[in-house]
Design a protein that fits this description.
Chains A, B: Keywords: ATP-binding, Cytoplasm, Ligase, Nucleotide-binding, Purine biosynthesis. Chains A, B: Part of the FGAM synthase complex composed of 1 PurL, 1 PurQ and 2 PurS subunits. 2 copies of one chain form a homodimer. By secondary structure, chain A is α+β, with helices and mostly antiparallel strands. The first copy, chain A, is about 35% helix and about 30% strand. Chain A has 2 helices and 3 strands. A 3-stranded antiparallel β-sheet of chain A has the order 2-1-3. The longest helix of chain A is centred in the last third of the chain and has 16 residues. Strand 2 of chain A pairs antiparallel with strand 2 of chain B.
């Protein structure tokens, strides 16, 4: 099964990349935007029999490698 | 409204970052993984009245700045 791990900076953690993207969008003519935040997503084909096991594996991988839990939150969803 | 733009490398485009993540996960004990692909996600608070307009704005921003359409695909979804 394929899981998707979404990793975002926690609320309140400064996000200079998001700020830069927001500024660039404003320059390009997209005015009036609110907060812009950037994160990563990782899609992984896991050897799981069911959705529950797939999500568990995705969460374990996020905790151990994909997310820095001091400053980042993650969510895991099954894609297919 | 808040939209989320997911940007991934197109099928067939080499993804060294994904490969490196897959290798690191294997070293950490997550064996038997299939393909691993890395992408970015950008959450943007847009000044739209309805979901349709929000998605349209997200798509326009993806085309103009967030995605490199030569090598990347994107999807846009409304988060809230």
């Amino acid at each position: 099964m394929k899981v998707r791990v979404n990793v975002m900076l926690k609320e309140g953690v400064l996000d200079p990349q998001g700020k830069a993207i927001g500024h660039a969008l404003d320059v390009l003519g997209f005015h009036g935007l609110g907060e812009v935040r950037a994160g990563k997503l990782i899609e992984i084909e896991v050897p799981a029999q069911n959705e529950e096991a797939a999500v568990e594996q995705g969460e374990a991988m996020a905790r151990e490698l994909l997310a820095n839990l001091v400053i980042e939150d993650f969510t895991v969803e099954v894609v297919s």
